[in-house]
Amino acid sequence: MIDNGLTILLLCGLAWLWWDGRGAAEQAIQAAKFNCERAGVSFLNDTVGWKKVRLKRNRQGRIQIQRTYFFEFASDMEQRYSGEIIMLGRQVNKVNLDAYRI
Predict the structure, then answer these.
(1) Which of 85, 84, 79, 96 is nearest to 42 (CA)?
(2) Which residues partner with 92 through β-bridges?
(3) How far is CA 45 from CA 29, 49, 72, 73, in A?
(4) Residue 30's closest CA among 81, 69, 65, 57?
(5) pLDDT tens-digit profile of 4-58?
(6) DSSP 44
(7) Which residue, 83, 75, 77, is CA-closest to 31?
């Protein structure tokens, strides 16, 4: 009986982690689109890829999940460049764009 309860609890935890990750990825996509538009470059593939996940403390000292996503963009449609978005919880913490040709 305890094994079944533990298994269900573990599966619920994994489902929550996946669901929360999808929400964070959707926000990362929106942030990538916004930053690419602001920089005057094209956001490629309309998606972000998962790069790294770890636990980190926020400004209030609470532990949250920090997710790092990567994406690609182009300025002249000849060369692809990389960008990175760091999310802390569901908040965009930092957006980095590689140096690109104008």
Answers:
(1) 79
(2) 87
(3) 10, 10, 8, 9
(4) 69
(5) 888 888 999 889 888 888 899 999 999 999 999 999 999 999 999 999 999 999 8
(6) P
(7) 83
Q: Where are the alpha helices (DSSP H) in the chain?
A: 2-39
Residue with tokens 């005057």: 40
pLDDT of residue 21: 86
pLDDT reported for residue 102: 78
Contact 41, 68 (CB under 8 A): no
CA 18 to chain centre: 13
**Rounded Cα–Cα distance for residues 67 and 52 (Å):** 6
What integer pLDDT is reported at residue 20 of this predicted model? 86
